[in-house]
Amino acid sequence: FRELERYNRPTRLTPRLQRLRRGTMKYHHVGIPTDVEQAGEIYLSRHKLYCTDHQRNPFGIQWMRYESDCPLPELVKTRAHVAFEVDDLAEALKGHEILIEPNSPSEGVLVAFVMCDGAPIEFIQFLDRVDRTGRSGGTTPAPQQQSPSIKD
User: What are the residue ranges of helices labelled H in the chain?
Assistant: First the structure.
């Protein structure tokens, strides 16, 4: 177990990890690309993809099956992504390379994708919920244009 000792040492947290630790980001789901049809798929015609409901299992697994002409970035279509619910989408995006610009796939929801260490990460902000600090809604206004995103 000596090899594991280095993982138990205190580390200096980056500002992003400090925000995560303070609870401003909360795990929402993991989206896994597949080419196999799944039971209970939902078709999202605007994005040309099929997905399962991440709430149908205790781990938030969402299977994603993309049509060949799906407009989303190749990285999103070929690699699993982890989605986090955030209180403030604009704040969460700071310092990240944006893959999919902030957009509103449905009323009261803002999403965006960023890249982190070569992996796609989705941030989701629910505008109609009371956040973990007791404030209602969020501070990020809904965007005017609709760009490609994944609807949960």
Answer: 5-8, 15-21, 74-78, 89-93
* Block residue for tokens 């404030």: 135
Mean of pLDDT values over 101-120: 91
How far is it between the farthest Cα atoms of the chain?
54
- 36-63 burial, b at 16+ Cβ within 10 Å, e below that, comes to eeeeeeeebeebebbbbebeeeeebebb
**Is the distance from CB of 47 to CB of 148 less than 8 angstroms?**
yes
Q: Model pTM?
A: 0.72
Burial group, residue 7, by CB count within 10 angstroms (0-12, 13-18, 19+): exposed
Q: Which of 101, 95, 97 is nearest to 140 (CA)?
A: 101
